[in-house]
């Protein structure tokens, strides 16, 4: 069903890029992975896939992306460790939109430096329909839209801009990407930074990274297939007991939602024993956390992410 789409897009990219070079910011999410494979099919090694470690990636993600795309798919992958730079840029910043903007800007800065060296002509982006629709509606600034090509003086190619997430997954599957990628839950561009409410620090990111991994693992083990399942560090300490001693620890919110396209979503009716297992594991495996809450709000009125 998607063969024709793939053929068309590959041809389009090949014709547009000509003898030039293209770069893509590859995150390992389904959108950028699909766009990267399409472009790789079209122009081979003239596609430079830049993978930036922002410090806000999920557990095991950098290793997974490098192994999959460099070792298995043979992409021309450039790995940039920019963790310190991102943490530095976000010091003292608590406002969600400011955080998103700073992350977006830092990303562009890092990317620009790499792009200058590569001297590329085109930028391939895995933008999908909800990204630009929601950005137009000014609900949240999405970090993979806007500003980037102008600053880099690159011509933009967005092969997936008319697709919704479920369609991108089908294309990814058709392209032979592993299930682990095309069945992957969406993950926001600003990553775990928007799953820490308020100021971001390496310590807080480490907590939410562990909690996210536990949530994803337990939801998968239970055989549930939500649109997204994740943890958020609320930055609120609450009182608990540990043995006979009063504890004062962090609170984690768990969010599991069902959705078709991310535009609207419902909180999932996750079996209570699964939620309890998640709470047990988070509070026993992450010593800083003393309480776990389940978010029962739909979108609207809430968004899927907390920031
Ligand atoms: P919200 O929180 O706006 O999220 O209901 C809708 C869907 O989009 C994902 N999301 C993002 N995706 N860049 C992205 O590519 C972003 O900046 C971004 N912010 C949120 C979110 O995880 C959900 O699936």
Write structural notes for this entry.
The protein has 307 residues and is an alpha/beta fold. The protein folds into 2 domains: 1-183, HUPs (Rossmann fold, 3-Layer(aba) Sandwich), CATH 3.40.50.620; 195-294, GMP Synthetase, Chain A, domain 3 (2-Layer Sandwich). Helix content is 43%, strand content 20%. The protein contains 11 helices and 9 strands. It has helices at residues 3-17, 30-43, 61-72, 83-89, 96-118, 129-136, 148-152, 165-174, 179-182, 202-221, 272-285; strands at 22-25, 47-53, 76-81, 122-124, 155-157, 228-242, 245-258, 266-267, 289-294. The protein has a 5-stranded parallel β-sheet with strand order 3-2-1-4-5, with helices on both faces. Strands 6, 7, 8 and 9 form a 4-stranded mixed β-sheet that branches. Helix 2 (30-43) links the parallel strand 1 (22-25) and strand 2 (47-53). The radius of gyration is 20 Å and the shape is globular. It starts with a helix and ends in a 13-residue tail after the last strand. The mean pLDDT is 93. The protein binds xanthosine-5'-monophosphate. ATP binds at residues 27-33. It catalyses: XMP + L-glutamine + ATP + H2O = GMP + L-glutamate + AMP + diphosphate + 2 H(+). One of its GO terms (molecular function) is ATP binding. This is GMP synthase [glutamine-hydrolyzing] subunit B. Heterodimer composed of a glutamine amidotransferase subunit (A) and a GMP-binding subunit (B).
């Amino acid at each position: 069903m998607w063969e024709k789409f793939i053929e068309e897009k590959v041809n389009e990219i090949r014709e547009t890029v000509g003898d030039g070079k293209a770069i893509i910011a590859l995150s390992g999410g389904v959108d950028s992975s699909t766009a990267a494979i399409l472009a790789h099919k079209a122009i081979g090694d003239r596609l430079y896939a830049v993978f930036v470690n922002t410090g806000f990636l999920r557990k095991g993600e950098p290793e997974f992306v490098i192994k999959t795309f460099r070792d298995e798919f043979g992409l021309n992958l450039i790995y940039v460790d920019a963790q310190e730079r991102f943490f530095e840029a976000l010091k003292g910043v608590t406002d969600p939109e400011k955080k998103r903007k700073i992350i977006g800007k830092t990303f562009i800065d890092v990317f620009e430096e790499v792009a200058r060296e590569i001297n590329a002509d085109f930028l391939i982006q895995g933008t999908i329909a909800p990204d630009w629709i929601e950005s137009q509606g000014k609900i949240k600034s999405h970090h993979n839209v806007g500003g980037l090509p102008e600053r880099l003086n690159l011509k933009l190619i967005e092969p997936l801009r008319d697709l919704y997430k479920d369609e991108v997954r089908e294309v990814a599957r058709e392209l032979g990407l592993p299930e682990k990628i095309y069945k992957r839950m969406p993950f926001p561009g600003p990553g775990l930074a928007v799953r820490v409410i308020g100021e971001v620090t390496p310590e807080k990111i480490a907590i939410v990274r562990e909690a996210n991994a536990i949530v994803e693992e337990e939801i998968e083990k239970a055989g549930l297939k939500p649109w997204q399942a994740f943890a958020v560090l609320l930055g609120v300490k609450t009182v608990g007991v540990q043995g006979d001693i009063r504890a004062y620890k962090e609170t984690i919110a768990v969010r599991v939602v069902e959705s078709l396209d991310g535009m609207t979503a419902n909180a999932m009716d996750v079996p209570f024993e699964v939620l309890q297992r998640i709470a047990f594991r988070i509070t026993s495996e992450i010593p800083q956390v003393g309480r776990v809450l389940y978010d029962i709000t739909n979108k609207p009125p809430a968004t899927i992410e907390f920031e």
